[in-house]
Structures are given as structure tokens and as C-alpha cells.
Amino acid sequence: MKAINIFKTGILVSAIALLSSGAFAQAPNYTDFTSTGGESIDSVTVGSRMPYKTQAQTAVTGLVYQYKWLFENASGVNQNWTILDLAGATLTEATAGSGYYTNNEISVKMPTSPGTYKLRANVRTVFNGTALCEAADTLANITIVAKPTLAWPTPAQAATCYSSSMTSVNIDNIALTGFGAWEVEYTLAFSNFDGSGATSSTKNATIGTSASKAGNYSMPVDVTQAGLYKVTITKLTDRISRKALNPTEIAAVAGTDIPSGEFTLIVAPQPATKKLQHVRNM
Question: In the chain, helix, strand, coil percent, each to 5?
Fold first, then answer.
């Protein structure tokens, strides 16, 4: 039976916007794909699991709606990616081989290498198991990018002078790749110069803005007094990787994405020049 197009052409397809950097705990914050501008392409991180959604059709008594979810490469070849629900469970096609599902909201696991793909979406009506009418396909662009990386400058050490008004010291010339703003979690180990008074704490820092891309940046490190501060990066995300539903799975790997070693900050006390003295004239 030939399908009759009774739907408005151009089914609304939405891509996820920025999520919290923690575990996925709330509904995705979707935004519409557009033909131009910043939302014309959905940039996603390699290996990330990403959600997509179409607006649900208005219910019609006795009819069922099914939604097409196909992911193609740049040449238009179907990649046969496994379609999942938001929790990560595999969904079954409404009709085997059709690409149609009963879900208007799904997620997919992205490949582990950068590349360019397209999402093909559609909706159709079904009555007693027979497909009736379908909308026109809509294509949306997806670009898969590498995970963000952070590298210390060489040597991984810097020295500065402490004053009582200071609250932080910058580590300069940190090499970052990815898309700002970057969020960094680090362990800060402090000790006096003789090794006494050792403490350790977990800190966070934000580097760059939403306009920042790969380059050298400064990272602020909390300081409270003169002494030795050793900084170890434990977590790194950029504004693209924070969109993923599986942040733990794509977490930065020490020695690959982030340094396996520490950066040492030598924060010396600022000396004060005392009065000059001389032998009294005879």
C-alpha cells in the first residue's frame, strides 16, 4: 500500500543541550536542530551515549504512531546502530528491518573514532499492524569529536611569592584540547617546606569560556599560605563531553587524556626588607 503523506513535512528533531557533569539524573535539556547557526550540527564526544527526541504526535483513537530512527554515514549508508532507551536498554523495532520504533525518545552509543554522521527521522501511522501514512524524512547532522585532553607545561613546576591577599595561583601554559569551558577536578596536596603539616583536599576549577577551543590556558589553584602545593588532575570534561549520558564510561584516562604525574607549585613567603644598619660614626 502506497503511503499518503498527511503530516507536516520536516518532523521536529531535537538534540541534547548541556547536562550536568555528574551522573545522569534528570530529563535531558533538549534544543531544536536548526538549518544554520550553532545548533545546525550536534557535536558529541567519541563513545558517548546521546539522547534524541521528536515531539510526540497528537493521539488519535485507534491509531498507533511509530518513529523512524536511522543513523547514516556521510555517504548515506545506514550504520545499523543499536537504538536504546534513555536508561540504555536495547529497543526492538516495531517491524523488523523498518527502522521504526514506538519510542519518540531514544539514545544511541557513538563510535569510538571521530567522524561525521546523519540522523534520519520520520513518523508514521499504523492501524491494526498496517502502516498507513508517513511524514517526509528529516536529516540532522552529527559530528563526533575527540575527548578533551590536558597536558602540563614542561617542567611541571612553578614558583611564586605569597602575600596575605592571595587566594589562588595560576598554573600557566596548560595545553588543552576540546571545547571550553573545561571543568577540572584535582587533588591538592599541601605541606610546609620541611614536609610537615601535610594535608590533602579535592578542588574544582573552570578554565575558559564557551568560545574557547584548543590552546594554552591558565588554571587557578587555591592557596592559603606559603608552602609546597602538589596538583594532581583527577577529572576533566569539556562542554561537549558533559552532554553524554555515560560520563563514567568516557571519563578522562590518566596518562592518556590527563597527566599521570603532579604539578608542583612552590609558594614562597614574600620577604620584607628590614632597616639598613651600619656601625655608628665615631
Answer: 0, 50, 50
Q: What is the pLDDT of residues 20-60, one digit of tens each?
A: 334 444 678 899 998 887 788 999 999 999 999 998 889 89
User: Which letter does DSSP use for residue 111 in this model?
Assistant: P
pTM of the model: 0.84
Beta bridge partners of 45: 145
Contact partners, residue 47, CB within 8 Å, separation at least 6:
109, 110, 111, 112, 147, 246, 249, 250
Task: Give the whole-angstrom CA distance, residue 240 versus residue 237.
Answer: 8
What distance in Å separates the CA atoms of residue 19 and residue 245, rounded to the nearest whole number?
8
pLDDT at residue 13 tops 60: no
Beta strands in the chain (DSSP E): 13-16, 30-32, 41-45, 49-54, 64-73, 100-101, 105-109, 115-127, 130-134, 138-145, 149-151, 157-162, 168-179, 182-191, 199-207, 213-222, 227-237, 263-269
Q: Of the candidates 144, 69, 81, which has an alpha carbon nearest to the alpha carbon of residue 114?
A: 144
Write down the pLDDT at residue 9: 35
Residue 72 forms beta bridges with which residues?
Answer: 78, 118
CA distance 198 to 187: 13
And the C-alpha cell for 151?
A: 597536558
- Closest C-alpha to 129, from 84, 62, 70: 62
DSSP character for 147? P
C-alpha pair distances (Å), 11 with each of 39, 72, 82, 174, 278: 16, 17, 22, 44, 89
pLDDT digits (tens, 9 = 90+) for 203-244: 999 999 999 999 999 999 999 999 999 999 999 999 999 999
Tell me phi and psi for residue 241, to 5 degrees: -65, -25
